[in-house]
Design goal:
The structure is a homodimer of 370-residue chains. The first copy, chain A, contains 14 helices and 16 strands. Chain A is an alpha/beta fold.
């Protein structure tokens, strides 16, 4: 198998896990945050910069790359890594989430999902087998089973059917899978504990080298997410990595880690950057705010970063003037911030003081009072 | 005086000039191309990259920086160089060209120009003295006199009045100028040789450390531009640098150099990049073209560039997917191409073979047949 996972330590204060994920393109301490390179580019950054602001493991989206430029062109480059000249490790999602969230005219059947390409209206079909084939062509180290992610307010009956179907799809995907890329199973079930338990049982029965948790961070409250994660924690296999899909806000990450999560991805830091929100060691700030117009101080003295040389005033100017360099510099800042943040989380776990770290962090980042 | 110019060699084959321009922030061989950093950023690039793809002398636009963020904020940063963290040398234009090309409701009087801020409709006033004050605050090494750039089809009477007024404005600007920044005079006169001669006489009489040629590359044909430059060449002072404003297409640059030009600036390479046009040693190509969809070859094997590692297929994908990294990578390519191109021009001048180089270049870049 292409990957392996070592659970090295469990935080005595919080129960959070510290581990090492071994992949063909590097070994990574967990918990880890994976920056999102949707279209074979972490927006605005080159591979050298991605290396600087990540731990070396990033994500790309199967759905987008399947539609543009197509997986066969990427395969000719030796996969996404060769296509974008990324020397680190890589994970792809299955495309399922985007089919359900971005496409219109979905027709779900046992065999798969028929939908229209939003770009040109073409009818397309994605199935468990097709999702595996595309991901094999894309060539990531870690790939995902094709799953359905129903809306958070779907009925119990629909959700149960969906959980059963997703498990059948996972089995079909595993059977179709030919390479030694590590294929993860995905646990669904919305906010219903019984269905979550069922999904864990059915998915772990198939046996995967890692498990993702889908269907969270899709509109539910933070408390609802935390409750499901706490419920899932003891049910999930201890010796396999657990990946909480689509989560990257600092508070959600800490609470995820406390509930046994090892891996995260999210467009949160890069999308924030696009909108002028800088994540700093003193909290997040909206750089376009008028109060930074004449602020000559550096963006984040608490982060050892090449971005530190620029004044807040200059960064604000770049956004006010619609200059892309602003977006690029904040993307770098936000990802580097999350990299430092996850390193601090790992250190706190190893030192059995993650709850203390959480309290300190909420004070410094969210300005939470005692 | 902050700058000085040494004319080192005149090409025996073409009459083109090779020289050295000394500034407080570096000495530069001429002919030189100056990348445009309109809003205190060469679009998409950071200062380290600007250093790599330029000779170390760039341009910023007074008009844009006056309106956003305002020259006083930039002055607080120690000028544009401190604002954008650029350690090289810098030139600013006077703002005149933008007032005449971008603004509506211009009212030109002897004292200056009244116009509306296109962003918010505010009435603004720019005069020779104001243009100097703003440029002193912006703090470039080389600054420009405030001039009028009339449309290429203006009447003889209007153009003559304008030439006389621009000369009076140049004198007022010189009188208002207090710093040791090098203030250039600007020669106008459209396509009328008599008026061009008058403008040279009036402007050189005031005596500046360098002279710009304005009012070209504004809609006239390439032949018309070349004819005016050839006419101006013997009239202009030999011992001062000559800057042809707003010109950066390779053929225009070669023909400018043959007619005695030492300095160029243009948004041509960066704007080309934005639209997907790559300037390469084999000619320019539109990277969005379908024929590059599966083209795994590097963009430009003739240029020693970090961009060379990417395939044309990947670069095309970035543009098709509206990814900014594509714009960024082509900006780097196009500026590096022009840097190499001007180095080749200088070498050819020193070796008295610029006309031979021109012929070779037209074959390789424009695919001109014998």
């Amino acid at each position: 198998m292409a990957i392996s996972f070592e659970l090295k330590h469990v935080c005595k204060q919080s129960g959070a896990r510290y581990g090492i994920l071994h992949t063909p393109h590097g070994s990574f301490e967990t918990p880890i945050f994976m920056p999102v390179g949707t279209q074979a580019t972490v927006k605005t950054l080159n591979p050298q910069e991605i290396k600087e602001v990540s731990d070396g493991l990033i994500l790309a989206n199967t759905y987008h790359l399947w539609l543009q430029p197509g997986e066969k062109i990427i395969k000719k480059h030796g996969g996404i890594r060769g296509f974008m000249k990324w020397k680190g490790a890589l994970l792809t999602d299955s495309g399922g989430f985007q089919v359900f969230s971005l496409s219109e005219l979905r027709k779900i059947s046992e065999s798969g999902v028929e939908f229209r390409n939003p770009k040109n209206g073409d009818l397309l079909f994605l199935s468990p087998e097709k999702a595996i084939q595309i991901q094999e062509d894309l060539g990531a180290d870690i790939i995902m089973s094709f799953d359905e992610c129903p809306p958070v307010d779907a009925s119990y009956e629909y959700m149960k059917d969906s959980v059963l179907r997703t498990a059948r799809w996972a089995k079909r995907g595993k059977e179709a899978h030919k390479t030694d890329q590590a294929l993860f199973g995905i646990v669904q079930g919305g906010l219903d504990k019984e269905l979550r338990k069922l999904s864990v049982e059915l998915t772990t029965e198939i046996d995967f080298p890692g498990y993702s948790i889908g269907g969270l961070s899709v509109g539910e409250t933070k408390d609802e997410m935390a409750e499901i994660l706490a419920y899932l924690n003891p049910l999930m296999p201890q010796d396999k990595p657990r990946y909480l899909m689509g989560v990257g806000a600092p508070d959600d990450m800490i609470n995820g880690v406390i509930n046994g999560i090892d891996m995260f991805d999210c467009v949160y830091p890069t999308r924030n950057a696009r909108h002028g929100t800088a994540m700093t060691t003193q909290g997040s700030i909206q750089i376009k705010n008028k109060r930074f117009e004449e602020d000559l101080s550096p963006l984040d003295p608490g982060l050892d970063s090449p971005i530190s040389k620029y004044s807040k005033s200059y960064l604000r100017h770049l956004f006010k003037a619609d200059e892309m360099l602003g977006y690029r510099l904040l993307t770098y800042q936000n990802l580097l911030f999350l990299k430092q943040f996850t390193a601090q989380i790992r250190q706190a776990i190893k030192e059995d003081r993650l709850l203390d770290f959480k309290e300190e962090f909420y004070k410094s980042y969210y300005h939470q009072k005692d």
